[in-house]
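Lab notebook page, bench 4
Experiment: in silico fold of construct C2
Operator: M.H.
Input chain length: 229 residues
Purpose: comparison with the prior construct
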Amino acid sequence: MLARMQKARASKLFDMLMLSPLSDLDPTYKHTVTRNGSDVAQIDSRAKLSYDARQITPGNQPDYSATENGHSVMTFDGVDEFMNWTIIAEPPHTLIVFGKYNSTAGQYFCDGADSLKRLALYTNNQAGHCAAVTITAWGYPSNEGDTDWHVHRVLANGANSEYQKDNLTTQTVSAGSATVDDMLIGVFHTVSDAFLDGIVAKISVIPRDVTTNEWKIIQSTLRAKLAIN
């Protein structure tokens, strides 16, 4: 009981800014969002560096009308909505994404094939990168297959990359780990298909790996805020 109380107290006191992220996009903080009617035109980073995400084309802007536990989130329609996110991150860095899919077909967090929904995809060259791993080398994760909320962690450490969903086993890919820039949120790098049909409540880039305890607190804090078990 004491351990649970201490964990709950730590979650309430924790803020992602305590990890000094390069960028922290969190639509639940309404003052960071520039709206175009009910859509998101821009979301400002809560971190000191101005790595903001934008979409200047009205028809491609995600929706901002849905809420989870009273907090606003970005909803992508799976047709033509995405955000441009210019960010420079040299390894090591950790990408944290909190979100869910709204349908069960063709769901990948990050993968090289076309016609798949994506929560996030790095694109620092024409081949596309996911956490600085070329998409042709990224073989995991396979189809997500559910519409539950998940917290994703991707680490690029300069030698290889790691992917972890919630508390599941970490998957490692031995591949290049280049400096990352220009990320698209919710679409394949060609911006022609593979649009996300789902919700994003948090994306953050931390300029190092996170500890096991930090990873646990990150997950519990994000889930508690939206009342997700």
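Observations: Confidence is low (pLDDT under 50) at residues 1-6, 122-142. The two ends are 18 Å apart (CA to CA).
Next step: discuss at group meeting.
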